[in-house]
């Protein structure tokens, strides 16, 4: 029988090869890390952190699309507002008789406000569409003069130019006539103006109007207005009054002489 005492000794473990001084200096590396194995490291990212980074990246990537989405939503809302409201089954005539008749069941002022809002919504969409293509609004001009300027600078011809004139005429009727009169086909007129502006513009201008519309500046104006209104409410509203009363109650009274 072979002598067991002559058998080779087992190789020392990794921990046995690490002296106390090497461990103190962190000179010992586990075999799994030496071989590049599947061991995990302390500096790895957790699944939650990876998901958070992915969400942040998607949010940053979606930021350039916000003006495009906002502009499409505003355009759809405005053009929908120009359509006459109907009630009951589809295909029935607009609710109530035309303004000015004695059988109108709705209050006259309310109907006039609805008619005016439909026309002005179409006008706002027309002027903002022109702004997106580089024709800034000019509030000092009358609607007719502003439409002529859009036709001239936007290179509109034919049906597009006529549509701009019809919308301007409807706006002036709403603004200056004793009673606003409903105008039909405003959404189609605005669509023809927009198509004319797009056809006359270059490729760069079309991309700018779609991806970075200039009229999106109205969002910043609206946010600034709301912030100012909120600050004013905080300054003059009920919470501010309560704080002032609380401060007056906590203020020490003056000693009487």
What would you note in describing this structure?
The protein is an all-alpha fold and 257 residues long. The protein is 61% helix and 0% strand. It has a domain at 65-83 and 107-215. The chain has helices spanning 14-17, 20-24, 31-34, 47-62, 66-82, 108-132, 143-154, 159-176, 186-200, 203-211, 217-236, 238-250. Helix 6 runs antiparallel to helix 8 and helix 8 packs across helix 9.
Strand-helix topology:
Layout: H1 14-17, H2 20-24, H3 31-34, H4 47-62, H5 66-82, H6 108-132, H7 143-154, H8 159-176, H9 186-200, H10 203-211, H11 217-236, H12 238-250
Helix pairs in contact: 5-6, 6-8, 6-9, 7-8, 8-9, 11-12
| Assembly context of the chains | single chain
Order of helices and strands: HHHHHHHHHHHH
Beta-strand content: under 5%
How many helix segments? 12
Q: Which secondary-structure class do the elements indicate?
A: mainly alpha
Percentage of residues assigned to helices: 55-70%
Describe the global form: flat
State Rg: 36 Å
Biased composition (Basic residues): 80-90
Keywords: Membrane, Transmembrane, Transmembrane helix
Transmembrane segments: 49-70
Protein name: Transglutaminase
């Amino acid at each position: 029988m072979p002598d067991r005492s002559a058998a080779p000794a087992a190789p020392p473990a990794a921990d046995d090869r690490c002296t106390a001084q090497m461990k103190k200096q962190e000179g010992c590396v586990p075999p799994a890390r030496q071989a590049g194995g599947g061991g995990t490291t302390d500096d790895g990212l957790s699944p939650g952190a990876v998901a958070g980074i992915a969400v942040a990246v998607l949010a940053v990537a979606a930021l350039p699309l916000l003006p495009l989405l906002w502009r499409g939503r505003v355009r759809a809302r405005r053009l929908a507002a120009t359509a006459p409201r109907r009630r009951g089954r589809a295909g029935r005539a607009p609710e109530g008789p035309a303004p000015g008749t004695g059988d109108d069941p709705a209050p006259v002022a309310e109907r006039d406000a609805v008619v005016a809002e439909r026309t002005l919504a179409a006008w706002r969409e027309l002027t903002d569409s022109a702004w997106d293509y580089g024709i800034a609004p000019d509030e000092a001009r009358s609607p007719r003069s502003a439409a002529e300027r859009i036709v001239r600078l936007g290179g509109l011809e034919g049906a597009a130019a006529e549509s701009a004139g019809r919308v301007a005429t409807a706006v002036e009727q709403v603004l200056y006539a004793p009673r606003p009169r409903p105008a039909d086909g405003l959404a189609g007129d605005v669509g023809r103006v927009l198509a004319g502006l797009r056809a006359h513009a270059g490729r760069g201008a079309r991309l700018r109007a779609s991806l970075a519309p200039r009229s999106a500046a109205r969002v910043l104006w609206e946010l600034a207005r709301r912030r100012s209104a909120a600050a004013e409410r905080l300054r003059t509203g009920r919470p501010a009054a309560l704080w002032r009363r609380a401060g007056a109650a906590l203020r020490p009274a003056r000693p009487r002489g």
